[in-house]
Amino acid sequence: MKIAVCVKQVPDAAIHKRIDPGTKRLDRSGEGSLNQFDTQAVEEALRIKEAHLTRSVEVVLVSLGPAGALDSLRKALAMGADRAVLVSDEAAAGSDLVATSRALAAVLVREGADLVVFGQQSSDSDGAVLWAAVADRLRRPVISQVAELTLADGSVRGKRQTEFGYDVIEAPLPAVVAVSDAINEPRYPSLKGIMGAKKKPQETLSAADLGLDAKALGEQGSGTTVLALGDPPPRGDARKIEDDGSAAQQVVDFLVERKLL
Amino acid sequence: MLGKAASLGGDVAGIVLGSGVKELAAEAGRYGATKVYVADAPELEAPLPQPRVDALAQLVGEQGIDTVLFAASVLASDTAGGLAARLDGGLNWDLVDISVQDGALVGKRPALEDTIYVDVGWTSEPRLALFRPGTFDPVESGGQAEIEELTPAFEDFSTAATMIEQAHEEAEGPSIEDADVIVAGGRGLGGPENFSLVEALAKALGGAVAATRAVVDAGWYPYATQVGQTGKTVSPKLYVACGISGAIQHKVGMQGSGTVIAINKDPNAPIFEFCDLGVVGDLHEIVPKLTELVQQRKAG
Q1: Is residue A210 in some structural domain?
Q2: Which positions in chain A touch B121 (Cβ < 8 Å)?
Q3: What is the domain range of residue A59?
Q4: B94 chain-A contacts, CB cut-off 8 A
Q5: With contact defined as beta carbons under 8 Å apart, do B4 and B99 qualify?
Q6: Distance between first and last Cα of chain B
Q7: Domain for residue A242, yes or no?
Q8: What is the DSSP letter of B132?
Q9: Which residues are bridge partners to B146 per DSSP?
């Protein structure tokens, strides 16, 4: 059995994120790290692998990003994933949902995984739709916001978290699943895992390797564009007080002043 | 949403997908749609996205629809994502506004934890957009829509996923979506027993109680009270956040609130960036005192 986990390198959380005013793209020149939400997808894949001791399960990382993104993928290899495939091509820079899903679907078709797993969202673009686009391109069923995942013979069952509570949805394999951030606590890589990660197979593919026209990726292959950057609307005068014992009274005064009490 | 779409010019059609939903179609006319397409099929009964992608793709293709707007939800987001791939149509998400500038549609999207507002556009058709829930207030235009029924064909893979057990909204208690005052509790409460402080203040203010995803996940408070990205979107006149740090996932559910008061012991909590009055201090001391003062004031 093969599980593919789609992961992304994002700017490191410690770095102040900025959008380059020239390209209007997120500045990715600084230190990158593995999208935190994706570590939960990796964790879930590893738990499936560990629960299936009688069958061999291979966990493959699939990503689209700059060449340096392999450094971030290594963290997931250190957690226990078996190998990594990175699509990296100059032509792919600035890919939106339509273009990114095209590239990932091309790798996933090549890999032929039984289960494709995504994390809840990307911390840089706040995107939470990619799995749906990829599933459509792969023509496979999809279950998103999965807070509990169970794999049975030939099918996958997910407890989906929605605005109304929890649904239970089942789909035959091969399928695509996106986990919610309530699903698990990802493990920390062990020292042995970190030492071994570098030696695990890591492959970098270009658009041409996947038989994709460069025009299908990047800005040319995208359906959206960023036009301008602006400041958020002001929220008015926020008052901040420190409690010196009179805070409750000050809140009441504020409520009265605003005619809320 | 229909009202906003109508303000952009051009023909606006509503699309109703489901099973036994024909009566909803007439509603759409009252809010600005001149036409409503209805697909009523058993495949559309469960809230699953992929059959909806099939129906929408067919409709967009047949009718030459150039723009499709969605109010975001778990279901709508997955549907929009699938449709984007099916039709190779650009999808902008998390929008808080849309307008026509120099003849082209421009969406507004907060990014990087809402520190920057980005104007986004589309380079091809159809243009797809997901809006933050509760972005637009409904505008009743009182019109009547022409109703057209669709008979979608479904792909095998689109109907492969099945709903085994569907969640139902709990109907007990006042809905937080309709409340004028909400007092919400987060992890800073320290434990489920301290929700009594929040409940007492809510009672004194005549409001409802809400919770963050973290405490709902931890089992401290019921799911129906969850505000945020995977929960409810609320817009009360007054929102009092107790022990809530203000993660972006929570913010998107309550930023439409009139006045926001935050009580948190961490002076660097992000919630202080988007409240009207921030109180840095121990909520376990402040909230009971506040409850008492509110009660006194109301009694006196």
Answers
A1: yes
A2: 224-227
A3: 2-216
A4: 126
A5: no
A6: 44
A7: no
A8: P
A9: B35
The confidence band for A12, taking pLDDT boundaries of 50, 70 and 90, is confident
Domains B2-159 and B181-299 share a fold: yes
Distance from CA of B175 to the nearest CA of A (A): 12
**Residue A45 belongs to a domain:** yes
How do the pLDDT tens digits run along chain B, 300 residues long? 888 888 888 888 999 999 988 888 877 778 878 899 999 999 999 999 999 999 999 999 999 999 999 999 999 999 999 999 999 999 999 999 999 999 999 999 998 877 889 999 999 999 999 998 778 877 787 778 899 999 999 999 999 999 999 987 654 455 788 889 999 999 999 999 999 999 999 999 999 999 999 999 899 999 889 999 888 989 899 999 999 999 988 998 998 899 999 999 999 999 998 999 999 999 999 999 999 999 999 887
Q: How far apart are CA B229 and CA B231, in angstroms?
A: 6
Domain B181-299 fold: Rossmann fold (3.40.50)
C-alpha B130/C-alpha B73 separation (Å) is: 9
Name the residue ranges covered by the structural domains of chain B: 2-159, 181-299
CATH code at position A9: 3.40.50.620
Cα torsion B118, B119, B122, B127: sign? positive
Residue A186 lies in a domain: yes
Domain count, chain A: 1
Tokens representing B35 are 């036409």
DSSP B216-273: HHTTSS-GGGBBSTTSB----SEEEEES----HHHHHHHTT-SEEEEEES-TT-GGGG
Cβ separation of A167 and B167 shorter than 8 Å?
Answer: yes
Q: Find the DSSP H helices in chain B.
A: 2-7, 22-30, 49-63, 74-87, 195-205, 213-217, 248-254, 283-299
Say how many Å lie between the first and final Cα of chain A, rounded.
Answer: 62
Is the CB of residue B181 less than 8 Å from the CB of residue B254?
Answer: no
Q: What is the DSSP letter of A231?
A: P
CB B39 within 8 A of CB B151: yes
Q: What was the ipTM of the complex prediction?
A: 0.91
Burial category of B39 from C-beta neighbours within 10 Å (exposed 0-12, middle 13-18, buried 19 and up): buried
Q: Which residues contact B116 (CB under 8 A, 6 or more apart)?
A: A19, A229, A230, A231, A232, B110
Query: Under an 8 A CB cutoff, do A170 and B164 touch?
Result: yes
Domain B2-159 CATH (choose: 3.40.50.720, 3.40.50.620, 1.10.3720.10, 3.30.70.3270): 3.40.50.620
- Cβ–Cβ gap B117/A18 under 8 Å: no
Maximum pairwise Cα distance, chain A? 69
State the Cα–Cα distance between residues A227 and A21, nearest whole angstrom: 10
What's the token pair of residue A185? 């606590």
B150's enclosing H/E stretch is strand B146-150
Q: Are B91 and A252 inside 8 Å of each other by CB?
A: no
